[in-house]
Amino acid sequence: MACPCARSHQHGKKRAESARARQNVTISVIMLFFGTLLPYALTAHLAVISPQDTVLHIGSSLTAVCTVTAELEVTARSLYWTLNGKRLARSTYRVLSPTELSVTLHQLNGSLQQSGDNLVCHRSNGEVLAGSCLYVGLPPEKPVNLTCWSQNTKDLSCKWRPGGQGEMFINTKYTLKYKLKWYGKEKDCEDYTGQPYTCYIPGDLAIFTPYEIWVEASNQLGSATSDIITLDILDVVTTDPPPDVHVSRVGDLEDQLSVRWGNPPALKDYLFQAKYQIRYRLEESDEWKVIDDAGNQTSCRLAGLRAGTVYFVQVRCNPVGIYGSKKAGIWSDWSHSTAASTPGSERAHGGSCDSKTSEQNSTLRRELKQFFGWMRKHAYGCTDVSIKLYDQWRVWLQKAHKTHDQVLQSGKS
Questions:
Q1: pTM exceeding the 0.85 threshold for the entire prediction
Q2: Residues 199-229: pLDDT tens digits?
Q3: Minimal CA–CA distance to 66: which of 136, 114, 119?
Q4: Which of 194, 213, 296, 381 has the maximal Cβ count within 10 Å?
Q5: How many CA atoms lie less than 13 Å away from 15 in the CB half-sphere?
Q6: Cα 116 from Cα 135, distance rounded (Å)
Q7: Exposed e or buried b per residue across 318-350, where buried means at least 16 C-beta atoms within 10 angstroms of its C-beta
Q8: Rounded to whole angstroms, how far apart are CA atoms 37 and 43?
């Protein structure tokens, strides 16, 4: 093992070598930069394009002029033009004087890049003499579909859609603005780092007081403002998905699963009445079946399922009426999928080949399916009434079949 002084010396040597390497890379980059731009830098003051950095509507025409000084010792007739690197036809040129060459562009399309198209004047050998940016596009239209939501009343996020295609051609800036409706100073939302056309306000928000919120869009050709929406933070609350989702069997009932979950912990100190939705699907299917009316309870019985089958289950929450709000609230994301399987049929477990037993089980399942169809039509959901009705129907059918079997047996004896 090296002594501390030796290690220190080695580390110092490595740091010095690393610093020299970075310095060499920096010098190389600078030399490459100047090597590329130096010819243009030396001639930039000797040639100019007018007009410079033009902003035009789609469909407009433009005539630009490249003017060179006598110091360049070139004639206008020897120059040529490119747009985004593509050489323009000589038929679009016009020699205005020995030192002036124009180019005329008709029916301009939208810019291929939001930073502007590059119109460049070249010497005959390809050397760049001067350049200009063209911004061809449309003024923005009024942003639409402005909606906002608050995660557990702690913040506010808003999203919207552009009102037109202007932002496809030239860069369009969107600014979300908000203020308290009756007083307070207008503020700009600053965090646009999420999804496109969204902004996040991290906190310091009032409740029980409505906000006015709108979006302003602007580019070089104009500006537009969305409709103003008015909302109270308590009316647009969403929360985290329900925690602790558990799915389990209901005894040996082959067509049922029990689902339990917890209330959203972030809202435990708030007055509200949650609504829940459940959805489930077969393991081999992508199609979800949704139970809309799970109500405010934190458990539900799924019935009418396929025996011996794996199901995936998810739950989501809607915090309704926080502190007396009259609005419906906003649904949370779905919880992570929780899987469970229904018990297999008696035939699958016992391996029985008794045709009569199989026929009786098939008849029982058919009758249960018929009842479940009636129940879903008249008492659909996770209500205690529907579950009790279903259980009572099963017991009644099983007793009926048992009595029927006993009658048959006594008849044979």
A1: no
A2: 999 988 888 889 999 999 999 999 999 999 9
A3: 119
A4: 213
A5: 6
A6: 5
A7: bbbbbeebeeebbbbebbeebebebbebbeeee
A8: 10
